[in-house]
Amino acid sequence: MNRRNILLASAAAAAVFSSSLAMAQDTGAPIRLIVPYAPGGPLDITARALAERVRDSLGTVIIDNKGGAGGNIGADAIAKAAPDGLTIGIAATATHAVNPWLYARMPYDAGKDFAGITQMVRVPNVLVMNADKAAQLKINTVADLIAYAKANPAKLNYGSGGNGSAGHLAGEMFKQRAGIFALHIPYRGGNPAQLALLSGEVDFNIDNLATAAPNIRAGKLKALAVTSLQASPALPGVPPLSKTFKGFSIDTWWGLVAPAGTPKPVIAKLNKAFVAALNAPETRTRFGTLLAEPVPTTPEQFDAFMASERAKYQSLVKASGAKVD
């Protein structure tokens, strides 16, 4: 087959694939959106909100929750689906940046088995202390916390939702940049870790802002800094850690991906529909209740972002020593 015939065949194949989505909508075939976590959480809620908003442009989108193994079961189902645009799913910090380094064996390749559609959201994490403990130790700022840790070596500890969790790795990153030591105490999930902080079992946590916000507003937790590059409108007056440590950024994020090999015209059609949904004022309002900021991107931008996040977490997981067999 000569070069001209190869090009013609490739163009014909792309045209067939790019029309598959439209044909499926015409026949009423739904799009399956795999969420690799249980129903009811922020990822599930935001996925369902977008599924409603793209109904007119893409047709019916069915949410398929496939939790387990830290999100790996659902992510693997996305990776192994047919690359026709009719099965897409959620890629998250854990499934596409942390787990590749945390798990000894992975069922999928986070860098090769997926095609980005668009990032959906980011949610800042927040460095918090028990408010009473902070007052007792006279800690009002990040600088105060670092000074106390250096003056009292090996006296501080911090909690997280488990070894290799976002809170654990954020804590390790903070310790590295601050040049301090604090003993990590893992709990069985984010809620037990927050209860430990509220009861005074641990000195500080780096928690998801959506989870910590109610207790911050109630005066039970003291917010010292957010972990995003910029300050969060949800916490006026609370500085970002990047103000103390240049470039410090460790947010929770998730977005939409398709199986690798999904034709670019199909990806482009999905991107157009979901970006429009993310830009809708109603979406921003709804996501705002979860303290989640919509972050619509191009497919290329999301692919590059996930690659940079994997590189960042590779060193963090190695430094933490966390492993899951």
From TrEMBL:
<comment type="similarity">
    <text>Belongs to the UPF0065 (bug) family.</text>
</comment>
<dbReference type="InterPro" id="IPR042100">
    <property type="entry name" value="Bug_dom1"/>
</dbReference>
<dbReference type="InterPro" id="IPR005064">
    <property type="entry name" value="BUG"/>
</dbReference>
<protein>
    <submittedName>
        <fullName>ABC transporter substrate-binding protein</fullName>
    </submittedName>
</protein>
<dbReference type="Pfam" id="PF03401">
    <property type="entry name" value="TctC"/>
</dbReference>
